[in-house]
Amino acid sequence: MTFSAHSSAAFxxxxxxxxxxxxxxxxxxxxxxxxxxTLLGQRYGQPxxxxxxxxxxxxxGRAETVISQLLSHRSVRSYLPKALPEGTLELLVAAAQxxxxxxxxQLWSVVAVEDPERRIALSQVANNxxxxxxxxxxxxxxxxxxxxxxxxxxxxxxxxxxxxLEMFLMASLDTALAAQNAVVAAESLGLSTVYxxxxxxxxxxxxxxxxxxxxxxxVFGMCVGWEDPAAxxxxxxxxxxxVVLHRDRYAPSQPLHDAVGxxxxxxxxxxxxxxxxxxxxxxxxxxxxxxxxxxxxxxxHVLRQTLARLGFDLK
Length: 315
Hints:
By secondary structure, the chain is α+β, with helices and mostly antiparallel strands. The chain has helices at residues 5-9, 34-44, 60-71, 88-97, 116-125, 130-134, 146-154, 165-188, 203-210, 241-244, 256-273, 282-290, 303-309, and strands spanning 108-113, 137-144, 192-196, 216-225. It has a 4-stranded antiparallel beta sheet with strand order 1-2-4-3, with helices on both faces. The relative contact order is 0.13.
């Protein structure tokens, strides 16, 4: 879609770097309900039988576009060497800042990494993932208590609350909410993304590369760019709602092992179709191995000690 003059006017008094980019978004479906139902089927790996909610409170076409976009999300790891439109970064950050924030404390920051050598170093930190180097935009999302600490000091207050686990959790949640808003905004512009959690394997190295102050922690990275159609990713099926949706009390509507057994088979089909290595023992064994030992956490088992060295007390 092309942004309207009304949308651009909201940014008219800002610098040229903040102008809205001119890009095209993907058209998902023109038939009310059909596109959403199809995407629900892809997301869960079987035809969607339940009623698809409709609304008369807003434009039904707009509602379907938003829901279809959310259901179409894919993690993309192969990008074209194509620059993003001017103003894309600023628009994504504006979307991120529009996310909910606990007590409006806004305990996060984001670092747009543009220097090629720094991108290479971050790629090495993240298990040499090539897309960290190749994507036209790489963002590092930071749980940031440093800013709140500085504001407290400037006003002669102790900021004692910042030493408690609750505040680190709050900052991490704020960071994730903001980042996901940026993902939704990017995808609405026809762009693709992938989160890079491997930055947490070496938090102190990341802090050094980005010059992070004390009480600032890189929660994850994010690649943003144009997907390479030669290596297009598919919608990855998720667990059935019968094991994640509970009503009134924690009580799955289907026995866990029955549901997961069917999901293992579904994921085997998905991995095969995508020419990906099928994990031995299926998704469930692969997931169990991922949490089987401290070593399986790839260095993150000492995260509490690392956070202490980065200035977090976490009482």
